[in-house]
Amino acid sequence: MKKFLIILGALLLVLYLSVCWFFSNLILIPPNGPAEVVMAALEEYAQDDLVPGSDYFSSPTDFTINSTDGTELKGWFFKADSSNCGIIMAHGWSNNRTSMNKYFSLFEDCRCDIVTFDHRGHGISEAAYATGGIKEAEDLLAVTDWYQKESGRPDAAIGWLGISWGGATVLQAGAEEKNVAFIVSDSPFQDWNSAVMERAIRDYGSWIKAFAPMIKALVRIRAGVSFNAASSRDIANQIEEPVFLIHSAGDSATASSQSINIAKELDPANSVFHHTQWGNDHAKDISNNPEEFKSLLADFLNTKVSGFGACNTQTMVAPPE
């Protein structure tokens, strides 16, 4: 009987660890697909939709850089005619740089260069574990440094824009010493734990909570970062840049309450939070209400970041929410 219990205990332990390993994979490894498939998709996208409707953009230039830990990042540099500003964009989980095209029109009046890149482990950047925005913020800073060397732009002529996972990334980067002109964060999560557990409970049930401590431990061991350290909310009060935060109340993937919590920690004199009531799901405000989104951002640039680039925001009025 004792031997049976030992064997049973060992089997249960193996099962427990296997389940935890499986879920740590879901957290750490983006559903990206083979590099050749991703590259083919990028090339197909580039044939028709890569260059926005505005004619002041050139076709993008490919670039490759190494982040601070040596991870290779690949991206595109869209050079604007007569530009004196740059916008660097960070995409969401399981997407790639092509998903940021929908934001380009926001900066038509500013006539800024735009830089997009594939996060670590995404697109055709080097395979690497995701870290909830910790190392992704370092990647964003590395891309920013590269752009500044290429363009000669000072910090005050650069803005960061991120969506979802990228929205959390730009906020975490904002807590670093480098201060850019402004940060736009669309539908971010307040911390890695909330982002993961909120979806895990919804998709698998509350029983997943029993596995959470070991899952977090495996994440720390495998990725070398603390699961709880990836928090936009905890560092929000350290952000000195003006912040434009937007989140749809109808978001079913990342509850908008997470942005409400982030907004509470931001400097109210240097930030705006739009809790939109347009009936959109996760990060769909820019797709379904682009003109309203653009007007809100124009008002922010006019009041918080006056004189950025060639922005013409004086006559633009934000619509009611």
Please describe the topology of this protein.
Blueprint: H1 2-28, H2 35-48, E1 61-66, E2 72-78, E3 86-90, E4 113-117, H3 134-151, E5 158-163, H4 165-174, E6 182-186, H5 192-204, H6 212-223, H7 232-235, E7 243-248, H8 257-265, E8 271-276, H9 285-288, H10 290-304
Overview of the molecule:
The structure is a single chain. By secondary structure, the protein is an alpha/beta fold. 39% of the residues lie in helices and 14% in strands. The chain has ten helices and eight strands. The protein has an eight-stranded mixed β-sheet, with helices on both faces. Helix 1 packs across helix 6 and helix 3 crosses helix 4.
In short:
By secondary structure, the chain is of the alpha/beta class. It contains ten helices and eight strands.
Descriptive terms for the model:
321 residues, alpha/beta, Rossmann fold, eight-stranded mixed β-sheet, 8 strands, 39% helix
Q: CATH-wise, what's the superfamily?
A: Alpha/Beta hydrolase fold, catalytic domain
CATH topology-level fold name: Rossmann fold
**What number of structural domains do the residues give?**
1
Oligomer: single chain
Largest beta sheet: strand ordering: 1-2-4-3-5-6-7-8
